[in-house]
Amino acid sequence: MFSEGAASEPRLRRVLALFDMEAAAVVAILLGIAQLLLTSPLYYLDVSLPKSLFILPLFIGTLFVIGGSLTIASARSSSKSMRQSCAYSNVACLLGAVLAVCLYCFSLSSVKQQPDCVEDTEVSFFYHSLTVDCLEGRLLGLFWTVVTLLLCYNVGALLLHGLLTVTSIRALRSP
Fold first, then answer.
1. Range of 74's domain?
2. Is residue 119 part of a domain?
3. Would you say the pTM of this structure is higher than 0.90?
4. What are the residues whose beta carbons fall under 8 Å from the beta carbon of 31, sequence distance 6 or more?
């Protein structure tokens, strides 16, 4: 079943005993898809930040999906060019995750928090009127939730791509 030449080719080595490259690559792809899905709510939120902020999760999510796909391909095929592209894509994903964490922290700190709106208890149960200030506060809460989710995903991806980068560079250095 196994060819003798395939056993002599260098494969991606594990950094930790419980670290599986293909499973980590699948998680990286899933983190990228989650970033891509959270792009649309970020585009439609009207906050005082630039509208180009929605491009960041679109770019980073695409980068994570490509990096995870190249890692899976490199784990299955161990040609030198595949290992090299895997290492480059994981370094790019690591730098992208660092950039995204910095920008999301900045965007969370630059938006001012509004107090919760107080709803009138006299309003009928079926008729729910909200003031403009109350809607703005709820949209701001939604923005905080989306950006906090993106920040958590990027911190996880930062750790994951750090391990993938170390593994791919070690495999690149092996003969």
1. 13-113+128-173
2. no
3. no
4. 64, 153, 156, 157, 160
Q: Are 147 and 108 in contact (CB under 8 A)?
A: yes
Q: What is the tally of structural domains in the chain?
A: 1
Q: What is the dihedral of CA 152, 72, 66, 175, to 10 degrees?
A: 110
Chain Cα centroid distance, residue 120: 40
Q: Which amino acid is at 138?
A: R
Identify whether 149 is part of a domain: yes
The distance of Cα 71 from the centroid of its chain, to the nearest Å, equals 16
Mean pLDDT across 105-131: 61
Report the Cα 155 to chain-centroid distance in Å. Answer: 8
* Angstrom distance (rounded) from CA 139 to CA 130: 12
Distances (CA, A) of 127 to 116, 117, 130, 135, 161: 20, 17, 10, 16, 50
In a domain, 159, yes or no: yes
**Span of 18-22, 111-115, 152-156, 163-167 with lowest mean pLDDT:** 111-115
Distance, CA of 133 to CA of 139 (rounded, Å): 10
Identify whether 74 is part of a domain.
yes
